[in-house]
Design brief:
Elements: E1 2-6, H1 32-41, E2 46-50, H2 56-68, E3 72-77, H3 86-93, E4 99-104, H4 117-129, E5 132-135, H5 142-151, E6 156-159, H6 173-182, E7 188-192, H7 206-220, E8 225-227, H8 240-251, H9 256-271
Helix pairs in contact: 3-4, 5-6, 6-7
């Protein structure tokens, strides 16, 4: 089993200012030594470490951790995709075999950024180097993402956290329509992660989460979905075993092969592990 999405950080009040006082449970360091026993308890063999800060320092930090910890099977880093010298930076990073892809925190950006010529040039450079791209957005940005993937049909994309639907407010119709549309692009995958923290942290309901899982399973099928924990952000709303157990209960009616795709094979395929 592979966890396709988790984070490490050494907490810094300025760099990690997004961690508010109400998120006190994650306002500390989270390093491989913290994750190893959790993965072992849950039968997870490896993970993908994803950037949580917009800097090449972050990319190097994760690569160092991957070098020291073989259970980190791949890294999704950050690089300035809008830089004129993006090809030079990608050529430099291509020496690091654990570096599988890149992510920019689009959920915090103004409308229009992902369709700017400079950003599109950066995405197309990723395609040339065989890198993946993780799409981190809120659900209202999905129409723009649909345009992005239309323009970059040879790029391997994965949607983080199912595009963060507004589960807390039980909003589903618009999100569902856009998910169905974007899933028509065969180069787009989706991560089964981050849904508990989009619900009411203290009062989420499994059946409520299942309603949203229904949509992504109907849209992407079992060949383009992958399990991810979003640990340690997950801890705001539940435990690792709670989230893994929820997904296991949802997929229990599927064949062993289909379950294997979701918990292991699709991550291996997408990230070329």
């Amino acid at each position: 089993m592979i966890d396709s999405h988790q984070h490490f950080w050494q907490h810094h009040p300025v760099k990690d200012s997004w961690i508010s006082d109400e998120m006190a449970v994650i306002k500390r360091d989270f390093l491989p030594v913290d994750l190893v026993p959790i993965l072992k308890d849950n039968g997870i063999n490896g993970c993908i470490a994803v950037q949580a800060d917009q800097s090449e320092v972050e990319t190097n930090f994760l690569l160092d951790l991957a070098k020291q910890n073989p259970f980190i099977k791949g890294v999704v880093g950050w690089v300035n995709l809008q830089n004129a010298n993006i090809n030079e930076r990608l050529h430099y990073f291509s020496q690091f075999k654990q570096l599988k892809g890149w992510r920019h925190i689009l959920q915090a950006e103004p409308d229009g950024l992902m369709l700017k010529p400079e950003f599109l040039r950066g995405i197309k450079a990723l395609t040339e180097f065989g890198y993946t791209y993780d799409i981190l957005i809120h659900q209202h940005q999905l129409p723009e993402v649909i345009q992005l993937v239309d323009k970059c049909q040879n790029q391997a994309f994965v949607i983080d956290h199912c595009a963060k639907p507004a589960i807390k407010n039980n909003e589903i119709a618009d999100w569902k329509s856009h998910i169905q549309s974007i899933a028509q692009h065969p180069n787009v995958y989706c991560k089964l992660s981050g849904l508990l923290t989009e619900a009411d942290w203290k009062h989420w309901d499994e059946k409520q989460i299942f309603n949203y899982l229904d949509v992504v399973f109907e849209s992407f099928g079992t060949e383009r979905l992958m399990f991810g924990s979003d640990w340690p952000v997950l801890l705001l709303a539940g435990s690792y075993s709670q989230w893994k157990g929820l997904i296991q209960r949802y997929v229990q009616q599927l064949s062993q092969q289909e379950q294997q795709q979701i918990f292991n094979d699709n991550a291996y395929t997408f990230y070329k592990l």
